């Protein structure tokens, strides 16, 4: 028996219906997601011991409902809270951050951070990222083939975020390790011991940023870059403290580093698997922003994308949710929900994408959206410029996956055939 309805009408599933860790699922999740969306849009997973919500309409509703919290401190298995004086830097930053504070303070933090995401600040970041991408493609050169994961996806996101938050280029490895450990520290699907180790490994990174913030505060002018804008942000005398600034940096790292890695591989895979769409984007570059969202939607790279936590006993969509229970937001299943999208698995960069959930919805709409889109757009522009006739090697790019990745169906090999020799011969 793989699914059941309990005495209290609780819809239940198990690993035979949905196992996000199986290699078969990671390689080809479509049938599983279609079944969840159609038959089990809201269900209790007996093996994972959490709710799984998969349909577009259910997730859109849940993402806008404050009774389902982003803070893992509302989880029934969360570590007990500590007094401020006993907390380490990670714990203080988490408590100060966008994912934990109440809705009123969340709006306050969003308002105070707006200057750091202003056009002038983002314009400077654009220029820095453009330079990184050109350098990245210079490093690729003009081979017959190259691996899009190791040459692009593994390099660009962490370099871009490092540039954004002011980390020197000789610290990129340090910064990459910090970014990975920040993400893993609150992934409730990981064992407690692994979360604890990841949290401890973030502490040098938090100390680095706290020292940098202190230096900016002590300077005659904090600077007009991203961190400087956060330090000087003020609203009628209200300012951000050091841990609030660090929490914003942390949120941007999570969005712009981990997610963007998958953006690059899935964007390249999607375009080169659909040469007509690749040609259309070359002809109509104004479609770039829409194309990025569509490529992410169809790519559907999530394995265990996001979690929420129940803050009170709730009856929701006919199911009884108990305070402290965890919920897997199965967002990538919703991205291909046929009730929302016509021909959902067909890549169409001209598709109207109103109401998409690619970057979330509601108060917790992804804070790193701009950076992810800029990275993706500039990378695709350079790919089209350098390799207009590119295709996936042998039709599938010899694709392989990191089956142990903590939350994504991460591609860790994607071989691109450049066809530059044929291009030169034709010229």
From TrEMBL:
Q: What sections of the protein cross the membrane? A: none
Pfam families reported for this sequence: p450
Matching PROSITE patterns, A to Z? CYTOCHROME_P450
Q: Which domain of life is it from?
A: Bacteria
Is this entry keyworded Heme? yes
Q: Name one GO molecular function term.
A: heme binding
The UniProt entry, under InterPro entries, shows: Cyt_P450 (IPR001128), Cyt_P450_B (IPR002397), Cyt_P450_CS (IPR017972), Cyt_P450_sf (IPR036396)
The alphabetized UniProt keywords are: Heme, Iron, Metal-binding, Monooxygenase, Oxidoreductase
The answer to whether UniProt assigns keyword Transcription regulation to this entry is no
Q: Which PANTHER family match?
A: P450, PUTATIVE (EUROFUNG)-RELATED (PTHR46696)
Q: Which family does it belong to?
A: Belongs to the cytochrome P450 family.
| Name of the protein | Cytochrome P450
Please tell me the species this chain comes from. Solimonas terrae
